[in-house]
Structure formats: structure tokens, C-alpha cells
Amino acid sequence: MTATPIAVVTGASSGIGAATARTLAAEGFRVVLTARRTDRIEALAAELNEAGHQATAYALDVTDRAAVDEFATAFRSLAVLVNNAGGALGADPVATGDPADWRQMYETNVIGTLNVTQALLPALTASGDGTIVILSSTAALSSYEGGGGYVAAKHGEHVLAETLRLEIVGTPVRVIEVAPGMVRTEEFATTRFRGDTEKAAKVYAGVDAPLTAEDVADTIGWAVTRPSHVNIDLLVVRPRAQASNTKVHRTL
Ligand SMILES: NC(=O)c1ccc[n+]([C@@H]2O[C@H](COP(=O)([O-])OP(=O)(O)OC[C@H]3O[C@@H](n4cnc5c(N)ncnc54)[C@H](OP(=O)(O)O)[C@@H]3O)[C@@H](O)[C@H]2O)c1
User: Fold this and answer.
1) Largest distance between two CA atoms of the chain
2) Within-domain flag for 252
3) Is the pTM of this model over 0.90?
4) Which tens digit of pLDDT belongs to each residue from 189-238?
5) Closest Cα to atom 47 of ligand 1
6) Which residues constitute the domain of residue 134?
7) CA of 213 to the centre of ligand 1 (A)
8) Candidate of 20, 36, 219 to mutate for ligand 1, largest count of ligand atoms within 8 Å of Cβ
9) Domain annotation covers residue 152
10) Does 251 fall in a domain?
11) Spacing of C-alpha 196 from chain mean position
12) Cα 68-74-75 angle, rounded to 5 deg
């Protein structure tokens, strides 16, 4: 009997991470849900287990290297790692943006992804067929006004994905970057605007059907279930109403 393949999802307590955990569980992976908010990942793990899937919750801050290394000791073999934990803080212009916000975004999106990827790469390689997903953004590919710190961090994550793919070619591990455009998730814009729900709502105002967390999870589920020799290097996914980071059709 072959063991159930394991998928680790970071930032599984909300939005795209939670939806991805659901999708991968339905695809037959034993999912390991990580995030800082234990109550949320435990509730999701319980829901998935009740539905007949296999799920475990593990509290983890991806910026805490010692904790990430400790977490990684649990895995001798790992099929999938989804680096999803991340997000934006603020929408200030470069002229007045807070360096602390820039630092935090770099720390979470880039160093967090680096920490978890480095720690779990041996187990992904040992599986003989590993997949690393890096959830960047269309902000990883082009800039927009007020996006500076987030755009810089996501460009950093994009470079991490591109460089890693070059460096590990020839090993049984593929690197898939998924770059979504506008996704209306529960918390992304509210976190960006520090709890100001009015400002957060304006991000999506008049936009006919922004992407949902489930749309992105569906994309990730598709990419990781391609045959092993197929590497989806970079997948850009936007809502139909968004032609670029700065060109969004709004019915206002
Ligand atoms: N929504 C969009 O429009 C959009 C578009 C493109 C890309 N993305 C990217 O997609 C990813 C998920 O975004 P989302 O929209 O689902 O946002 P979200 O609902 O705000 O979720 C962010 C997740 O990241 C986790 N997280 C944040 N800092 C963390 C840390 N230091 N350690 C561990 N977990 C941490 C949060 O969990 P805890 O707070 O519980 O730790 C949460 O589960 C992010 O990387 C984001 O940049 C989003």
C-alpha cells in the first residue's frame, strides 16, 4: 500500500490558503494546515476530517526560522508545498510609504517563503516527486501606483521562484508560480488597510466578479495534479474585468 501524499499549505487560516487546503484534500492529499491563528486552522482541519479527508493543523509563523526548522523535522517525505502565507500592508506612495511596512512585507512574502522552502526542500526531494507552489501575484510582474512595497516584495518572491527552478533542475522537484490578479478574499484588503473595511470595499467596487479564493485554489489544484514531468512555470490568472494591474473595468 502506498502512503497518502502529503501537502503543506502555509497561510491556511483564510482566503486562498484555506480554499487550497480544501481543494488539495478533495484531490486526495493529506493536508497539513499552517498559519499563526491556531483556532482557524484547527476548525478547518476538523471540518475536513469530518468530511472524510485527512487534515492536521500546525501553528506556524513563517518568519520564525527556528519554528519552521522544528516543523520541518516532522517530514521525511513531502509531495507538495504551497507557499501562500503573505499579503500587503498599506497603499502609500513611495514618497511617504513606511519602511516598516516594506520590511514586514519582504519578511513575510519573501523570507517566509525562503524559510519554509529551504526547510522542506530535503523532504520534497526525498519524495522522488515533489512540487513547490509559490503564490506570488500580478504585482510580482508589473508595478502600480501605491503598490511599491508589495510590488517589491512580490517581485522578490518571483525571483526566488525563477532562481530556484534554475538551481534544482535535474532533481525530482518542480517549481510552479501562480500569480493572481484581483481576488476578493475575506481579509486581504482589510489587512492591507489595517481594518478599514470601507477602504477595503473600494478595491472591489463596481468590479463585476473579481476572482474568488476558490478560483485560485482550483488553478493551484490543476497545476499540482499535472503529470510529474509537466512544470507549469508561471500561471497568471485575473478576473475578466481586469486587463492589467491598472486597467480594471468598473460599473460605477
Ligand atoms: N487577494 C488578492 O487579491 C491576492 C492577489 C494576488 C496574490 N495574493 C497573495 O495570495 C496569498 C493569500 O492571500 P489572501 O488573499 O488569501 O489573503 P488573506 O485572506 O489575508 O490570507 C493571508 C494568509 O497568510 C497568513 N499569514 C500572514 N502572515 C503570516 C505569517 N507571518 N506566518 C504565517 N502565516 C501568515 C494568514 O494567516 P495568519 O494571520 O493566521 O497567520 C492568512 O492565512 C498572499 O500571499 C497574497 O499576497 C492575493
Assistant:
1) 60
2) no
3) yes
4) 999 999 999 999 999 999 999 999 999 999 999 999 999 999 999 999 99
5) 87
6) 6-237
7) 11
8) 36
9) yes
10) no
11) 23
12) 100
**Amino acid residing at 33:** L
Residue 2's pLDDT is 73
**Looking at the 3D structure of the chain, how many domains does it have?**
1
Ligand 1 test: best mutation among 157, 183, 234, most atoms within 8 Å of CB? 183
Known catalytic residue: 150?
yes
For Cα atoms 96, 161, 139, give the angle at the middle one, nearest 5 degrees: 35
| Alpha-carbon gap, residue 76 to 79, rounded angstroms | 10
Instruction: Please report the DSSP string for 44-61 in residue order.
Output: HHHHHHHTT-EEEEEE--
| 150, part of any domain | yes
The three cell numbers of residue 112 are 517566509
Res. 179: pLDDT tops 90? yes
CATH number at residue 33: 3.40.50.720
User: Does the C-beta of 90 come closer than 6 Å to ligand 1?
Assistant: no
* Residue 173 in this model has a pLDDT that exceeds 70: yes
